[in-house]
Amino acid sequence: MALNLDAIGKKIGPFTKDYTWKDAVLYALGVGAGFSDLDYCYEKDLKVIPSYGITTLYDFMPELAATSNVNLAGVLHGEQELIFHNPIPPEGTLTTEGTITHCYDKGSEKGALVVAEFETTHSNGDKLFTSIVTVFSRLDGGFGGENAPAKDVEFPEREPDFVVDGKPTEDQPLIYRLSGDVFQLHVDQDFAEMAGFEKPIMHGLCTHGYACRALIDSFVAGQPEKVRRLDCRFKRPLYPGMPIKTVIWQTDEGQALWKVINVETQEVVIDNGIFEYGDIPKTEIRFADRVAIVTGAGAGLGRIYALELAKRGAKIVVNDLGGARDGSGDGSKGPADEVVDEINALGGEAVANYDSVATVEGGEGIVKTALDAFGSVDILINNAGILRDKSFLKMEPQNWHVVLDVHLNGAYNVSRPAFAVMKEKGYGRILMTTSAAGLYGNFGQTNYTAAKMGLVGLMNTLKLEGEKYNIKVNTIAPVATSRLTEDILPPDFLDKLKPELVAPMALYLVSEQCPVSGNIYNVGMGCVNRAAILTGPGAVVGDSRQIPTPEQILAQWQKISSLKDAKEYHSVTDQIGDLLTAFSQPAAAAAESGHGFSAVSEVFDAMPEAFAADAAAGVDIIFQYIISGDGGGDWFSTIESGNCRVDAGTHEKPGCTLKMSDSDFLDLMNGKLPAMQAYTSGKLKIEGDIMKSQLIEKLFKFSF
Ligand code: NAI
Question: Which domains occur in the chain, in start order?
Answer without folding.
Answer: 11-143+152-277 (3.10.129.10), 291-531 (3.40.50.720), 586-699 (3.30.1050.10)
